[in-house]
Every structure is written in C-alpha cells, then in structure tokens.
C-alpha cells in the first residue's frame, strides 16, 4: 500500500496525537513501513515525542516535527514571535520527501482544520495537496455533531467522501455521547468509528493488546470497512 492519512480535528486537544500514535503502533505491528509526522507545532513538543515513541525511535524528533515554536498559540503567530516563517512549499517538500520511504505516512495537523499553520496555509491546504485521506477527530460529547459537519463542509468534495470520523470518548460522557454517532449517520455522515477514553499516561503497546481497539484502528486506517468495526457503548 502507498497512502497518506491526514489526522485533523474539530479543535485542539481532541485526541489527534493519541490516535496518530495508536495508528502508528498498530501499523508497525502489522509490518507496514509507517511514518508519523507532525510537521508544525507550538507550545511544546510532547506530541512529537509521543509519535517518536510509537514509531520505536525510527525517526528523529526533527524528522517528525521540523518546525517547532515555543509560544502556546497558533503556530503562525508563534513563528512570528521568533521572527521565523513556515511556507506551504517547504512543508510539502518535507512531507513528500519523507513519504518516498514509507508505505503509509500519517500526518497530524495542529489545532482544527483551518487553524493557520504557516503564513499561507492550513491543514486543509496540506491535505488537499497531498491528496490525503482525512481523519477527523472529535470528542464524543455535546456539540460534536455541529463541529464535525462544519469540518466536513470545509473539505473539498473529493476529500469529504473519503473522510473517516473518529469520536473519542471524553473522560466524563454526557447526554449526547450515546446518540452522536446515530445522529451523524442519520445526517448521511459515513465511516464513523468510536474509541474509548485513554488515561493521560497510556501505553500504546498495552492498548494495542485489545482486539476491539485493533479492529477499530484497522477501519480508521482504511484496512477494514468502518461499518463493521466494533463500537464501544
């Protein structure tokens, strides 16, 4: 297989890195040559470090995350504080160079789909240029349906039809948690998967011992039909 998968979210802090790390570990276990990249980040490098661990140290931190800025604000603004600039052409060059050596490249965005990553681009621009399969991560709580629909609407139609939706269980479910998936399906949103809540210091290897999680990750990665993936209650 040769595939680029772009993990975006309805907001920041919704579980993009957790999902990207799990996908990286899962694909590695299956013998797939996989890279997990977070090309731009700000405010801390813990996400990139988690991806490096999931990859077994196969890539350096700078290969995973070539543009890092210290301020915990949108990357484009954090870069300006350091009098630096990230351009779309440079980001694409790095990603295209990396994917020459891998079967699957997982690319994690920063923030939501339209949050500016550099002076002239956002996650949607990267996703479109790479012709990547979109994976939209959202917390499975009240408000998720609207956020997911808005994110899908912002995608080009050619990408929208390929998108996977991942509802991540929050630590405290609310009244909408059980109904979000069914309501999305009623609104003609397809390829919906759900994952349980993972504690802050979770182990990728430990989580991957669970057959239900593995089957769901296979569906998210496009290796199985999401309609047949087991769902947590």
Task: Summarize the structure in words.
The protein has 233 residues and is α/β, with parallel strands linked by helices. The chain has one domain: P-loop containing nucleotide triphosphate hydrolases (Rossmann fold). 39% of the residues lie in helices and 18% in strands. The chain has helices at 16-29, 46-54, 61-64, 75-81, 88-99, 123-130, 144-154, 157-160, 180-186, 204-207, 211-220, and strands at residues 3-9, 34-37, 40-42, 67-69, 104-108, 116-118, 121-122, 133-139, 164-168, 192-195. Strands 2-5-1-8-9-10 form a 6-stranded parallel sheet, with helices on both faces. The protein has a two-stranded parallel ribbon with strand order 3-4. Strands 6-7 form a two-stranded antiparallel ribbon. The longest helix is centred in the first third of the chain and has 14 residues, at 16-29. The radius of gyration is 17 Å and the shape is globular. The two termini are 32 Å apart.
Return the CATH topology: Rossmann fold
Largest sheet: 6 strands, parallel
Share in helix: 25-40%
CATH architectural group: 3-Layer(aba) Sandwich
Could you list some keywords that capture this structure?
233 residues, alpha/beta, Rossmann fold, two-stranded parallel sheet, 10 strands, 18% strand
Please provide a brief summary of the model.
The protein has 233 residues and is of the alpha/beta class. It contains eleven helices and ten strands.
